[in-house]
Description:
Rossmann fold, Transcription Regulator spoIIAA, 4 domains, six-stranded parallel sheet, 22 strands, about 35% helix, about 20% strand, globular, binds S-adenosyl-L-homocysteine, binds iron/sulfur cluster
Amino acid sequence: MRVYLETFGCQMNELDSELVRGQLQSLGHQFVLHPDDAQVVLFNTCSVREHAEQKVYSRLGLAGVRKKQGEQLIVGVIGCMAERDGVDLFKRYPQVDLMCGPGELDRLPLLIDNASRADAADRSERVALAGNKSRRSATLQAAEDNLEMLDLSRAFEPVANDAKSKSAYVRITRGCNKFCTYCVVPHTRGAEVHRPPAHIVDECKRLVDAGVIEITLLGQTINHYRYTHGTALTVDGHEAPQVGPGLAAFRKPLGPGARTTTFADLLHRIHEEVPGVQRLRFVTSYPRDFGDDILHVMRDSPRICQYLHVPAQSGSDRLLKAMNRGYTVSEYLEFIDRVTTTLPDCTIGGDIIVGFCGETDEDFEATCELIRRVPYKNNFIFKYSPRPGTVAFDRLTDDVPDSVKRARNNALLALQNSVSARVHEQWVGRTVRVFLEDLRERSAPAQAVHRHVAVSVAGRSTASNPATMPVRQIIGRTPGDLIVALPAPNDAHSMLGSVRTARIVGSKPLLLDGMFAAT
Ligand code: SAH
Ligand code: SF4
Ligand code: F3S
């Protein structure tokens, strides 16, 4: 069948979509670029904020209109929204033919097959959600983890010669056990399950053999990766995915003789055993239990990117407690100081939630203070969005008016902009390696290109103005995830997907300007 798949949400979802695509293609389905050409329309959805869900509701509305007009169309909601909203969504949107949670994606082909058979009238055959099962029997679920098969059976065809295909995600941990009070992820993705290191290394090797040069490891709290060998085995004696050890395990040192692969061990192993990976990165770091062992591996392994995405969420201890984040501001800062001391070139990014339940002006000021104090290259700033099913939704009051959330959001963006500008400026004059990803045409202001022409049009420089010159740029990323714009040479297209040397000649708050330099 012809399938259209649209992805919302985080990198986990992007990876899931890739795996789903590979799985369906291997069964003979073809993918199309426009929903109008499809017989099956799938939305891989995100529930993290209400706004993310609204986008999907509007897509479902459009699909509903097509079905009302008599089109034969299978509409599927997969991913986190399916898991969160589940059967309710199925009832409210009769145009939805199938639903599949992120923990059940291996069953998607069967659900599509059921939905395509007109005689399979029973809609319950078209729903696969983990529900509470994902937590109640977490150990059991991990041991017979069908999802592991989905990752392992990933298509390893030679990658196309473009930048997008040369960069790949590899999951090391599924799910999350932290239960931050605002967050749906532990509810939609289930318990924290760690994949066996051998599977991860093997996957990295096969990706590199296929032509991938950049690998980003994925986990919700990635530094909490820990695999104890000799405990979880499959029936045929292979190592199986394993439920996370819980926070207490990080408070005490590993016992003598413990055969454990920590996150630092895993990074080291991939770096040593997969020399073809030119860039090894990871997201998302959790600001507690991030040991010096990880920082040392990062320092000593030239192909591991010195970049941390380590969200603080708030700069107020009171709110961090209400969010159940498990660290204080001073612990966060202590960690940042260890990072900047051990890895002076490491770039740091984060996420902040404004307007969480009970956030006062003082709490907000404390967050501003944190942003002034930490050399963040960027911060994603989100207005708190209450999510049904979370502790904050049930027990706390969403008492910050939207206008205040918006004002705080804007104030933080402006502040972060000035911090970003400072951080980017420090790179001017330095030489960096850049992974080239994209080409873009930018209209340069007329006076910057042809000053004499600009004068003759009296400053009216719009896109259609003949005095505005399009400038072709090639866009890339440093190992520290800073974006670099370089003048595009004639053969720019063939350079995409390669890593080159550049000298940084200028900076803006979120962009570096570079010139190609000899390696
Ligand atoms: N595991 C990561 C975060 C994953 S969710 C971590 O703990 O850092 C990505 C981001 O979405 C979070 O960092 C948070 O800033 C934001 N977020 C999550 N739930 C939210 C909510 N209910 N309202 C607003 N932002 C939210
Ligand atoms: Fe959500 Fe917290 Fe888990 Fe991150 S650590 S995914 S914010 S519950
Ligand atoms: Fe969204 Fe699910 Fe990712 S809720 S952020 S798609 S884990």
